[in-house]
Amino acid sequence: MNETGNLRHELGKAEKKYEQPYFRDPTRFCNFAAKYQDGFAAAKGGSQLTGIFSNKVRNAGRIAEVYPSVDIFMPSMVDLYDDRRSMRSIEQQIHFYEALNLATGGRYLPMVSYNPQRQYQAELRGYSGEPKPYLDLVKDAVLNKGFVGVKLHPSSGFSPINNLRFGCVNTATQLVNEDDQELFDRFTAYDRMLTELYTFCAAHNVPVLTHGSTGITSNRRCMRGSRGKQEWIDRPAGRRGTGPREWRYLYRRLGRAKGQDSDMSLEWTNAPDVWDHIAREFGVKVIISHFSDSLKVDEERSMVSPSPWLMRAAEICNTNRNVYMDMSIITEFFQKDDMKTAYRIRPGYLEVFAKLNQRFPNLRNQLLYGTDWHMPHTAFVGADFLPLVEMLLDQSGLSSEKNAIMGTRAVELFGLKRGQPTRERLEAFYERRGAEFAGRPFTPKDIDWMQKLG
Questions:
Q1: At 190, is the secondary structure helix, strand, or coil?
Q2: φ, ψ for residue 158 (rounded to 5)?
Q3: pLDDT tens-place string over residues 185-243
Q4: Which residues lie closer than 8 Å to 140 by C-beta, 6 or more apart?
Q5: ∠ at Cα 42 (31, 108), nearest 5°?
Q6: Could you give the CA distance from residue 124 to residue 121 in angstroms, rounded to a whole number?
Q7: Whole-angstrom Cα Rg for the chain
Q8: pTM of the model as a whole
Q9: Residue 229 contacts by C-beta under 8 Å, 6 or more apart in sequence?
Q10: Residue 372 to residue 73: CA distance in whole angstroms
Q11: Which residues lie below 8 Å from residue 39, measured CB to CB, with a gap of 6+?
């Protein structure tokens, strides 16, 4: 039985035992989820380990347990589709997060992933693995299943825009079996699908969260291409020869040693300028995640400075009110004190963060709190992360913006106030699915954050 099945089965058995909606107590939820883990390294009971050592149900319970003051968590699906490997279907993943939303009384508001390569491959084989087009599943998740945003992870190969020039086939090598005509058709389809996605998100006030980093890449080689001085030429349409051939990416930096990629990072397919263009062209709200590659450390000179991505993303947030940046996975800002008993801000990091906000005064109006706490490295900081971020904001002169950064800005961005379209969709979702899931409709009185917002 999969995780979704486990969740529904257990909730069915627990209907008379627990008040509705179920698992308001995160410790109970965490202990329930621990029963469905296998392996010698599985996280059990009060163990801090999460991520790859834990299933998604227990991750959710553990996060809620560690952060009791947080009203809403927004887990985002990630789809690093590679057609060489099978993955759990997108429909199954949507069902899981829909159930998680209901099981926790609305404490988890998920974001659905999208990858045009998966949809294109499904179109080629007639949707043998999915019941309908991926984009239709995304739209249905937002409109009817309690999802509040869309997550794109372009590091898997596709480009957010202009795939005819910058798109890539997500395989282990650049050798592909397709001829030029097929690749032309493929990348044209990617652009069509993404245009439809951005148009939908703008029309329904649905933010797009993008992986804003050169790390965690499914196909790192695909991401590096020139957007600067050298002009690209359009790839040819039409068959040229037969059989496997090398599709050559002009001006790509091939074979660069690990650690050097950041020198050319502003030319990568998901660089901040790309999202600036998308936000302006489509009117869609974009969130660049992970503080946009964060800081660079020169250990020889003991210097800390913003990465090229962070500088450019900050400049864009300063001028484009539709582009935001979250502060997830900034654990490098913090270290244990000399007594090894508590965390503090690393020397130099506070100064760089403060200067960045002074140089770009509107940046503070576009920042959002984020954790990505389930990632193993971030779990090392764990429950201390939230107060550490608050301390960073206070000590860098952002105290007046702290409440907005830590939550109220997300309420506005995701449309969670009464009368806003997303809020109305969520209320209809809880009423309809609550009746199916738990035997009675869920009302705003059952959803803690709705009561607080009114």
A1: helix
A2: -75, 155
A3: 888 899 999 999 999 999 999 999 998 877 666 666 666 654 443 334 444 444 444 44
A4: none
A5: 50
A6: 5
A7: 22
A8: 0.87
A9: none
A10: 10
A11: none
